[in-house]
């Protein structure tokens, strides 16, 4: 066995040989498996996942505060809508730019700036004196989250390798899913606790101490990394992609509430030439050896190209599922925000059990682990729809628990390994930019799903909402979501087979 003293003697011998003008033997690189076996610190993982969790949580948690805002702040329906819209647009439109900023200026630096801005914006939300202040602060929150989220995957890609990267990516998926699954429960508990009489304000103020801790630990535990070589920020690309994504997201998130007026269709039509011009500029910059915002070479990797589409389609199911489930429980069965949040626990149980098992499934089945998870979600959706139909508006929702566990289990099988299978082939110099595209697909999927399923759901609810209408809308929505999950299982077949083992 080689001791530390032996290594010191060898190092001194090498120095002596160099001094004598004789080249030492070239050091032998550790085999890949041995290098991967060297266990790195997971401190960086915990710190960046904390930032990921609070920024994603705020996408879901605000729904719980709507009744309190209407009562205490006299918020109108339009103002309630703007709270969600400003955050979503700020986040979706700037994720790709945020990722590129990390590649250029340093992922740890941009992550820290994002967390600082998000923490200050959360404080502004928590102390807002009127709805105008709250809406502006929510927009800043979304923009700050767009700086934080893409850096997380960028940092994990450059900090960990081999099996440790797979562990980190799996933890990323768990944090992402946990924010969605438990957003309603956490929000309900905070509002129910009513700490110091702050009511809805606690869902924003809780971010302040967490953000402060993350900021203090980041420089100590998270290594800095950035793209090597010639870099620069493509300002034309920033303007085009921001305008193009806003033109897509804005009508999607408010179109249904407004009755799909002409401007919503014009916006979505304008998005096509804007995004086409963006892609043309990126190809031209890459061909002239300059620095595009998104390198077209990313999409030559089939796992990344197909995976980006799969992410968009799958997350259209995730966000819309949580929306219609909350409405079903609260409007169809009269549950409070806290009661409906507690009913999300079985879903979370299934999710965490599957997340723990997902690495083994992915190692053995590769891409088919994702297909299996999507089909399990589809089966759970159909079982849930059947159960809800049998219960009507007066039956005990406890009978829904088995279907909820199945849905959560399927979600865990998809979300946990998806990141690793999509990003494993991305070069480290494009890590944060690729993460920006990945996260943009996720957020665009959320907006698209809420728009599509929202139309389906509220069409069934009708112009005169009733408990039975919400129950019917929920069941019909689940059948549509089950069909989308089958589509995900089909898309997964286009991922490269190289990930499959055994």
TrEMBL record:
Residues covered by the Major facilitator superfamily (MFS) profile domain: 44-500
One annotated GO molecular function: transmembrane transporter activity
CDD domains referenced in this protein's UniProt entry, alphabetically: MFS_MMR_MDR_like
One GO-annotated biological process of the protein: response to antibiotic
Chief location bin: membrane
Subcellular location: Cell membrane
Assigned GO CC terms: plasma membrane
Annotated membrane topology: Multi-pass membrane protein
Pfam families xref list: MFS_1
Keywords: Antibiotic resistance, Membrane, Transmembrane, Transmembrane helix
Transmembrane segments: 44-66, 78-98, 110-129, 135-157, 169-191, 203-223, 235-254, 260-281, 302-329, 341-358, 370-389, 401-423, 444-462, 474-495
Protein name: MFS transporter
Organism the protein comes from: Streptomyces alboniger
């Amino acid at each position: 066995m080689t001791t530390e003293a032996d290594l010191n003697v060898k190092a001194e011998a090498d120095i002596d040989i160099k001094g004598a003008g004789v080249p030492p033997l070239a050091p032998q690189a550790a085999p890949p498996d041995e290098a991967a076996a060297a266990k790195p610190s997971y401190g960086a993982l915990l710190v960046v996942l904390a930032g990921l969790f609070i920024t994603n949580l705020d996408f879901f948690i605000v729904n719980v505060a709507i009744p309190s805002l209407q009562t205490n702040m006299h918020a109108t329906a339009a103002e309630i809508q703007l709270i969600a819209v400003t955050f979503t647009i700020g986040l979706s439109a700037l994720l790709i730019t945020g990722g590129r900023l990390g590649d250029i200026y340093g992922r740890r630096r941009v992550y820290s700036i994002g967390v600082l801005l998000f923490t200050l914006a959360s404080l502004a939300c928590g102390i807002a004196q009127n709805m105008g202040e709250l809406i502006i602060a929510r927009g800043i929150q979304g923009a700050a989250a767009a700086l934080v989220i893409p850096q997380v995957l960028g940092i994990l890609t450059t900090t960990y390798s081999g099996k440790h990267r797979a562990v980190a990516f799996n933890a990323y998926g768990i944090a992402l899913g946990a924010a969605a699954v438990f957003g309603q429960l956490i929000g309900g508990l905070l509002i129910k606790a009513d700490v110091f009489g702050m009511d809805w304000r606690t869902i924003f103020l809780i971010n302040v101490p967490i953000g402060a801790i993350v900021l203090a630990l980041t420089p100590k535990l998270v290594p800095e990394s950035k793209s090597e070589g010639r870099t620069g920020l493509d300002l034309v690309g920033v303007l085009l992609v921001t305008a193009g994504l806003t033109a897509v997201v804005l009508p999607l998130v408010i179109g249904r509430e407004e009755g799909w007026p002409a401007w919503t269709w014009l916006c979505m039509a304008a998005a096509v030439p804007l995004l086409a011009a963006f892609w043309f500029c990126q190809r031209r910059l890459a061909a002239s050896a300059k620095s595009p915002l998104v390198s077209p070479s990313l999409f030559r990797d089939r796992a990344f190209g197909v995976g980006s589409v799969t992410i968009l389609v799958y997350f259209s199911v995730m966000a819309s599922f949580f929306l219609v489930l909350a409405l079903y429980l609260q409007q169809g069965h009269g549950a409070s925000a806290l009661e409906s949040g507690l009913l999300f626990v079985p879903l979370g149980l299934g999710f965490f059990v599957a997340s723990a098992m997902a690495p083994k499934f992915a190692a053995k089945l590769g891409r088919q682990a994702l297909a299996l998870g999507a089909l399990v979600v589809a089966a759970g959706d159909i079982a849930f729809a059947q159960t809800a139909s049998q219960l009507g508006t007066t039956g005990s929702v406890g009978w829904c628990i088995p279907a909820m566990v199945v849905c959560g289990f399927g979600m865990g099988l998809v979300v946990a390994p998806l990141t690793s299978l999509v990003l494993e082939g991305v070069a480290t110099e494009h890590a944060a930019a690729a993460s920006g595209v990945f996260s943009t697909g996720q957020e665009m999927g959320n907006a698209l799903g809420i728009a599509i399923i929202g139309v389906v759901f509220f069409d069934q609810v009708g112009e005169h909402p009733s408990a039975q209408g919400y129950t019917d809308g929920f069941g019909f929505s689940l059948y549509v979501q089950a069909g989308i999950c089958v589509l995900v299982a089909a898309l997964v077949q286009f991922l490269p087979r190289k990930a499959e083992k055994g």
